[in-house]
Structure formats: structure tokens, C-alpha cells
Amino acid sequence: MISAKDLKNPHVVRRDLLASLVVFLVALPLCVGVAVASGVPAELGLVTGIVGGLVVGLLPGSKLQVSGPAAGLTVLVFEAVKEFGLSTLGPIVLAAGLLQVVLGVARFGRWFRAISVSVVQGMLAGIGLIIVLGQVYAMADLEQPGSGLAKLAGLPGLAVDIVTNQEALTAFGLGAGTIAVLLLWPKLPARARIVPAPLAAVALATAVASLAGLRPAVADVNGLLNAIDLPGGAEFSRLADVAVIGTVLAFALIASAESLFSAAAIDRMHDGPRTDYDKELVAQGVGNTICGALGALPMTAVIVRSAANVQAGATTALSRVAHGLWLLLFAALLPAAVGIIPLAALAGVLVHAGCKLVPAKEFGPLWREHRGEAILLAITAIAIVVTNLFEGVVLGLLLAVVKSAWETSHVQLTTHELTGGRVVVTLTGNATFLRLPRILEQLEKLPQDQPIELDLTGLRHLDHACRIALENWARRHNNAEIEPVTIRQ
């Protein structure tokens, strides 16, 4: 929240207002691009950005991270709009926001930090791959196939269309030029980099298209008020649909995880107060509830805007609130400016953003040091591409739990023979059902003609399945001539 003390300090106010302009210039093309890629009117992306600034910016949680429509939810929103229709998007987002508020009030925010980092990276990588695969079609002003596999299979045909179709080639050139500017911009002198790279890239592509007399596809602009479609009772009745409920859960969980992981990353970038995860989760929920009531896109905390905010020198929440005000003024006073931006340029911005979600540089060291985590990351990403976002994340979480259980259930079995022929078998560690096949395999190799003592006193944990299996083995192992196996616990 913004304190009166901060507002009385002209140095803080000036610095944060300047930072807000930087964040606004970064957020503007991303709000529009995410909306178009999600299959909704461009203005709805601006609405979400405005709510993220003016509402979430005033709520407690994280002072410096900035919320708005995120590329990470593009795939899920696109699928939801395609399956349930744009009119149902509002109730889905509203219900997801209310669920986030409940989770935050119940103090579940801190538990999102327990989600495996590899699953989150795999989720972001899968989302990034889907965005890239889909937006390369948009760069050529061509319709993208529905599924991830279909997008992959259609790439050769896309290449042929670009080479043989002059309009597709022109649009793809604008998109490729946008990506080139985004890649080269950080290498320019500091004075040139005062303008954020996404804005510069989109502005240059728009200028080239206009000066060259090109006619690429552009966003359809109807004005802010015309784009807002408040959901009614018929739309809210769809929330009883099982498929819609699954989408609500996916929105809430993925948006919450992305926001809180973003908060953790931003906390590492500054020395100010740390994020209160529960309050931040409530703030995100309130923002999504309002976005849903307006029929707009869902929001998350966005690492690109948040990092720009910190790097621009912001120290209070004033910067993120003011960035929402600039978005509102732009949407109200200059809506037609959105209608001249080539869709291919916006697609290029999202292709660049999608590539940054794929942790290509981190994968090699992760494979060398923690191969299991690297495999978990890869499986999650591939599952998202092959199936869908929700199923891929659920699979990743299940595999993470299984992997953790497997690694923590280490058990060691040792045997030694005492004078008189008695064999002592000692189990140490954690004996769970996951290790049961190996334990029984070793026990069944023991001689059946010698007295055996099974020592379980060194076990830190013995689950029910293991206990029953060991008792059954003890009863039937030795033949009738030898004394039964004894168990010491």
C-alpha cells in the first residue's frame, strides 16, 4: 500500500512516477498482444492491466510486482474461449478469483512455495512452447491449428505458405523484424534503451508497415466500453459444468503459482520489505474477481513488468498504481492507436516472450547435477504440448510427489550370522510400499533352514503396507522343522 509519508516525499514520488511510465510502456504492447493471442478483443487485455494497476496495486502483498494479463495463461484462456465461448470467460475468471481469495484467507499462500520448482519450470516451458508454436502462425497472418501436436505437424505447411504467399511472407517479415529488434535492443547504448524494447519493436514494425504501404492484419478496436461485456445469469449457470469447474481450478492454481513464484523472484531483486504470500494471493484474487465481473482476461503478477519496475528504481506501490492510470488514459483517449498495430508484430513480441519461458540455458546444468529434476521438467513440458495445460501440470505434480516419495524412502538391509547359525537381518531407513518389492526380494533369498531374527528397531518409518508384508513373510518363510522368524521392533 501507499503510505502518506511516501506521498509527502517529492523525491520518492518523482522516481516512482518515472518508473510507472517505464512499466506502462512495457505493459501496453503485452496487454494487447496477450489479448489478441487469447482470442479476445484487444481492449480486454487493457482492462486487466488497468485493474492490475489501480486495484491490485493498492492492496497489500508485494509492493513492487506488477499484475496484468500474462503470456503464461494465454494457452489456457484460448482453449477456454474456444470451448466455452467468450461470454463464459468472465464467470470462470470471477470464480477463480474468489477461490484465490479463499486460499489466501485460509493461509495457503505459503504452501505454493512447496510446489516443485522443476514442475513450475516445466509448466512455463510447456506454455512457452505452445505460445511459440501458435504465434509463428499468427506472425504470417494465418490461422493456427488447435492442438500442440497439430501445430507441430503443420510447421512444414506453414513454411510453404510463407514462401509461396506474398501476404504471408510480408506479415512474417514484420514479425521476424520485431523479434530481431527485441534481441538487439539490449545491446544498444543506455540512452537508446530508455524506450522499452517491446514498445520500440512494435512501434518500428508499425512505422515500417505504414511507410511501406503494407496492409497486414491489425487488431479490431471497438473502444473500451464496447469491449466490456458484463456476464449475466445464463453465463454463471455454466459454472455447474464439470469441464468449466476444471478450468476454474486450472486458472486459480496456475495463476496463483505464477504470481507467487514471480513474487519470490522480485524479492531477490530488491532490499525492501518481503512479500506476504497470503496477502498477495488475496490481492490477486480480488483483481481476478473484478476482471471476471467485467468479462476481462485473468491476471497474474508478471515478471517482465515487475522486473522493469524494480530496475526503473521504484520503491513504493505508487509506480504500479500509476501505470494502471496511464493504461486507463491511453485506452480512453487513444484507443484507435491499437488498431494500427500489425498483429504480426504483436505475435513477434509473444514469440520472444514464449522463448524466454523455456529454460534452455538452465537445462544442461540441471541435467548434470539433478537428472531426476531435469526429467521431471521435460516430461511436464512435453505433456503440456501433447495434451493440454491442466493435464500436463497435474501429471508433473503427481510425478514430483512420486519422485519425492521414492527418494525419501531409502531403506538398507544388512545380514550377519551369529554363533550358532542364527541370522540377524537389520532394516534401517524408511520402509515404504515403494521399496517393498526390493525388500521382499532380498528377504526371500535368505536360507530357510536357519533361525532368523528380523530387526526393525533402526527404521525411522514403517508404513502399514510394509508392516503387513514383513509379518506375512515371517510367518511363511521357514519350514516346519526350524523355529519361526522373530521380529524385533
Provide an overview of this structure:
Its main location: membrane. By secondary structure, the protein is an alpha/beta fold. The chain contains 22 helices and 6 strands. It has helices at residues 4-7, 10-37, 42-54, 74-84, 86-105, 117-139, 148-153, 155-164, 166-184, 197-211, 224-227, 233-236, 242-267, 277-293, 303-311, 318-333, 343-357, 360-369, 371-386, 389-408, 436-443, 464-476, and strands at 67-68, 300-301, 411-417, 423-431, 452-462, 486-488. The strands form 2 sheets. The protein has a 4-stranded mixed β-sheet with strand order 3-4-5-6, covered by helices on one side. It has a two-stranded antiparallel sheet with strand order 1-2. Helix 2 packs antiparallel against helix 15 and helix 6 (117-139) runs parallel beside helix 19. The model has no long low-confidence stretch (mean pLDDT 84).
Q: Strands, helices and their partners?
A:
Elements: H1 4-7, H2 10-37, H3 42-54, E1 67-68, H4 74-84, H5 86-105, H6 117-139, H7 148-153, H8 155-164, H9 166-184, H10 197-211, H11 224-227, H12 233-236, H13 242-267, H14 277-293, E2 300-301, H15 303-311, H16 318-333, H17 343-357, H18 360-369, H19 371-386, H20 389-408, E3 411-417, E4 423-431, H21 436-443, E5 452-462, H22 464-476, E6 486-488
Parallel strand pairs: 4-5, 5-6
Antiparallel strand pairs: 1-2, 3-4
Helix pairs in contact: 2-3, 2-10, 2-15, 2-16, 2-17, 3-14, 3-16, 4-5, 5-13, 5-14, 6-17, 6-19, 6-20, 8-9, 9-10, 9-17, 13-14, 13-15, 18-19, 19-20
